[in-house]
Structures are given as structure tokens and as C-alpha cells.
Amino acid sequence: MRVPVIHQQARRRRARYARLLWNGAEVLVTLGVVLMLLVVHQLWWTNRQAREGAERKVQALEREWEGTGEGEGEGELRGTDVDGGGGSGADGGSVDLGDRSGAGSRRAPASGSAGNPRPRWTQAYAILTIPRLDLRVPVAEGISKGNVLNKGYVGHYPGTAQPGRAGNFALAGHRNTHGEPFRYINRLRRGDRIEVETPAAVYTYVVDRTLAQTSARDGGVIREIPRSTVRTGYGYTDPGYYLTLTTCTPEYTSKYRLVVWGKLGSMRPR
């Protein structure tokens, strides 16, 4: 009867392979858990946190306006020509401002007339309501990701018109994560109402046109007379009272921009 001989070298080699396989499996499981936690954080936690903060801010603005009864007067609120240092951000839903951005400079906002202060950088100063989407969020000055968009707010493009004023009142918002206020603006249809509430009045805009996809650098969509410089058949040719909403598209990417335009329909004092 032959007794099998076990070679120690082969045994050690198999043991090393087994350890490597086990260690590799542990690394893959750990990476999987970390990735899952990151996804949960981005898709659930940031939304919850931003939505709760935005709701609190809306309530705070309403209490402030009811308590003071102060309006913005007849003068125009104006931002300055830059976004307050945050930049438009590739995933913030905003479009490239090009020459409008002030080439990275940061000038202090100029003071307004008496009783009519201009909004400070990142200051929430209006409330945007879209009944079809059951959406009610603060509007803040600037399109900084960290100080505006990531808080679940909608950001006002500096240099564009203010609510109810001649020109183009242009806004940016996240489509995914961080409250994703503009996730479903692709569902808006012509004739839908969009309200912008300030301390002095409620301005009602009516959805007029949609540009399903354009370049992130298409700054024409937020000009005073909005008209795409990429999709030249989209936009307007005459002065008016416009509202522009911009966000990223397709969902979970930041490659292109989705644009919704509206026109001012009515105004009522608070």
C-alpha cells in the first residue's frame, strides 16, 4: 500500500492563495458597503436634510413678512454680477454665465434705495411656489452650490432681473440630491402657474415654453431676452417679463441643461 506524500511547498502555496482570496473578498465587501453608504447619503440623507432646512426657511420668511409688514417698495432689487464665490457648478443645474460672471471677481453688492435693500449673497429673499409639482422653496441670491443650491434652495442668477421686473428672472436648482427642487420641472406644461412671493407682492408667471436639452454653456437662455445660442429656434425675440428655470439633464448627470420659460401673468400686493 502506497502512502501519499504531501508536499509542504504545494500546501503552503494553496494556503497563500486561500488567504489572498479571503482578503480580496473582504476588500470587495468593504468597498460595497462604503459605496452603498455613499449612495444612501447622496440620494436620501442630503435630500432629507436639505428639504427640512428649506421648509424651515420658508416658514421663517413667512413669519418675518407677517411680523414686519415691510415691502420692497417700487424700486428694483438687484444682485451684482457674480455668484458670491461659489461658481455655477457643473452639477448645480445652472448654465455657464460666460462674460456675465464677472470673470471671477467679487464686488460687494451696491446698496439700494431707502426701504429697499438689495439681497445679500446667499440671502433667501423670496419664495417660489409651483402648484403642479407641490413645490414651495426659498429663492436665494447667487448660484453657489455650497451656500445656496446644496441647501435645497433655488438660486437667482446674479445680473438677471428680479421678480416682477422687466427682463428675465432666471433661477437654477438641483434636479437630483440636496433637496432636488427642480427634479420634475420637465413635467411642467404650457399654462401652468409659477408664483414668486416677496415681502411686497406675489408675482404669477405662466409656463410658456420648454427647451428639453441644451449645452451647459448656453448662456443665451438666461439673457434679458432669453434665446438659446445652441438651439437657435428656441427662445424669444422681443423684450418682456420672463421667468427662466434651469436644471441638469438627463437625471443623475450634469452634461446638459433643461430649461423652462414662463411669462409674467399677474401681480397682487401682499
Which features does this protein show?
270 residues; alpha+beta; Sortase, Chain: A; eight-stranded mixed barrel; 1 helix; elongated
Characterise this structure.
The longest helix is centred in the N-terminal third of the chain and has 61 residues, at 8-68. The protein has an 8-stranded mixed beta barrel with strand order 1-2-3-4-7-8-6-5. It is elongated. It has one helix at 8-68; strands at residues 124-130, 135-141, 154-156, 167-172, 193-197, 201-215, 241-249, 256-269. Mean pLDDT is 81; it is low at 70-90 and 99-116. The termini are far apart. A hairpin with a 4-residue loop joins β1 (124-130) and β2. Helices cover 23% and strands 24% of the residues. The protein contains 1 helix and 8 strands. It has one domain: Beta Barrel (Sortase, Chain: A). It is α+β, with helices and mostly antiparallel strands.
